[in-house]
Design goal:
This protein has 193 residues and is mainly beta. The protein is 6% helix and 70% strand. A hairpin with a 3-residue loop joins strand 1 and strand 2. It is elongated and about 60 Å long.
Length: 193
Amino acid sequence: MKRSLLALTLLAALPFAASAADGLSYNYVQGGYTHVNSDINANGWAIDGSAAIAPNFHVFGGYNTVKADTIVLPAGSYKPKLDQWKLGVGYNHAIATNTDFVGTLAYQKAEAKLAGVNANVDGYAAEAGVRSALGSRVEGYAMAGYEDGNDFDGDFYGRLGAQVKFNQNWGLSGDVKFADNDTQWFVGPRFTW
């Protein structure tokens, strides 16, 4: 039902196609530091990007890897590791001079490693929200999402982000994702073209 509602919303908006709002670009690459705070705390790095393929559509992808603090088990000490990646497509529609409605759909994969044992999870995520240029140097977004997978129950989440632009191409980007008992955040430089 939730997937059908998101798909119907995106299809209903197609006849009103327009390019991205003023001051927003869907062509960028960014990388930096990421932190996961759930049952364990983990730190690492992430890289992701987006490319416009039409005035109202873009593709995006990302990869991150984090390692947790050492866990001592009877068999020895281990440092859990989590690798995640995603690929997806997004739709953007200008709803004001400097604001876009954004909807995305992505395939996600995660691989957890602990003491030589690997666990893989495949799933998807759907998001909808707004992205806005809040002036010539700042932009922000607020998204609501739902993710589900083959080995975990579905979960709703919220995501907030912002970018401070140093010039036309370079900026500093930050993102926080809030889910049930799980907070993930990212900060790093962004190159936009």
